[in-house]
Amino acid sequence: MTDTPTQLFIGGAWVDAADGATMPVDDPATGEIIAHVADAGAKDAQRAEEAAVQAQEEWARTAPRVRSEILRRAYEIIVERTDELAHLMTAEMGKPLAEARGEVAYAAEFFRWFSEEAVRIEGGHGVLPDGRNRMLLSRRPVGPCLLITPWNFPLAMGTRKIGPAIAAGCTMILKPAPQTPLSSLALAAILKEAGLPDGVLNVVTTSRAGEVCEPLLRGGRIRKLSFTGSTNVGRLLLAQSAEAVVRTSMELGGNAPFVVFEDADLDKAVDGAMVAKMRNMGEACTAANRFFVHSSVAKEFGRRLAERMGALVVGPGTRDGVDVGPLIDRVGRAKVEELVADAVERGARVLVGGRTPEGPGCFYPPTVLTDVASDSRLMDTEIFGPVAAILTFDDEDEVIRRANDTPWGLVGYVFTEGLDRALRVSERLEVGMVGVNTGLVSNPAAPFGGVKQSGLGREGGRVGIDEFLEYQYLAVPVR
């Protein structure tokens, strides 16, 4: 931990907060403070904004190949330092080291992907229908960006936003979640080492998000906001962005349905459930929340899932053999406790888990509930914990209606051996992504995002860079 930066990164330099404030970073497995980092205020946000604005014009003119090679070098450095970054992430966030290493690989891949997209930004040319003008289309960076990332995937959510911004020629201010600032600061150091010019990326760690972000969004010099986090915060940021008409992309909450039909391969379904539910201890917007299982296979599915969940080892992420680390903090754990208690009060049965262990840390056991009432609070709440709630159904139209009965629409999962049914149901689900006989949909090469109140725009894939580019149309008379 001693080599990890703890200051703000502004204009290519490591600096303290203007008022000297710092904030602690806790290990959720022990509750102990592992570091103190600079706690930025309004003056620091202004400094970061000035650095990003001043660097924008020159950075936009930088050759695409140069931007591409910086991203490629950063990708290689991240891969080389996998263990170091994984241990850092586990210390501040809690996930087991195996998962942390997986996130490092996932994060690095966004830089490799967008290093390849940087040199494929294309425009267009043609004669307009009336024959009087030629149309020249070019694409240019949208301008300085504010990137706000969550704590659950602290490295990957950074690279998923920074990668396309660099590729497009945008400068940035990154505000990571206060629970997990160290991964973002380490990433900034890697990009500086990889040759990113001063001012292109600025990192402001803060516990005073409103004081930092609102003036940036209302001021008119930040031209793009990319946010990953809760729907409630997303609504607030959209309102703040409206005054200066800031372009926005939002990756917000989810309430994923996991549908198991009577013809599903139950081995595949349980394997998929373990991934869709337990990735990152259930602290993922893609996590399966509502398990709709056909009544003819519900009992067997529940038995198998409870057996697998009960076999998982809970403990500090650095300990060998641990499968499930702590939740991010006591507030997050208390929410899970309350949701489970509410479901049980309404008639749910606990097949496994459901009791908070004694001792330090923010641990909660993998839990499977069955006979869950449809009016339970966890049916319309993003659980963000290791709790699988099983409901039964008998009819395809019925389960689609129930799956869509939510304001969110990020991802859904469908398990069936019938191709026609898989396609038919997937097309009727009101979500931006569907996993068919798989519990993992995230991939840097695929567009990530949702519909309804799960967000605006897409990250990753061929379209991920579009969020950071504008079109310019030139009309040139035909002579």
UniProtKB/TrEMBL annotation:
Q: Name one Pfam family in it.
A: Aldedh
Q: Which organism is the protein's source?
A: Streptomyces graminofaciens
- Does Endoplasmic reticulum count among this protein's keywords? no
In Swiss-Prot or TrEMBL terms, this protein is called NAD-dependent succinate-semialdehyde dehydrogenase
Q: Mind telling me which InterPro entries this protein's record contains?
A: Ald_DH/histidinol_DH, Ald_DH_C, Ald_DH_CS_GLU, Ald_DH_N, Aldehyde_DH_dom, Aldehyde_DH_Superfamily
Q: Which UniProt keywords apply?
A: Oxidoreductase
Give the Aldehyde dehydrogenase domain ranges. Answer: 14-472
Q: State the PROSITE patterns in the record.
A: ALDEHYDE_DEHYDR_GLU (PS00687)
The reply on keyword Repeat is: no
Q: Where is the active site?
A: 251
Quote the PANTHER family the UniProt record gives: SUCCINATE-SEMIALDEHYDE DEHYDROGENASE, MITOCHONDRIAL
Q: Which family does it belong to?
A: Belongs to the aldehyde dehydrogenase family.
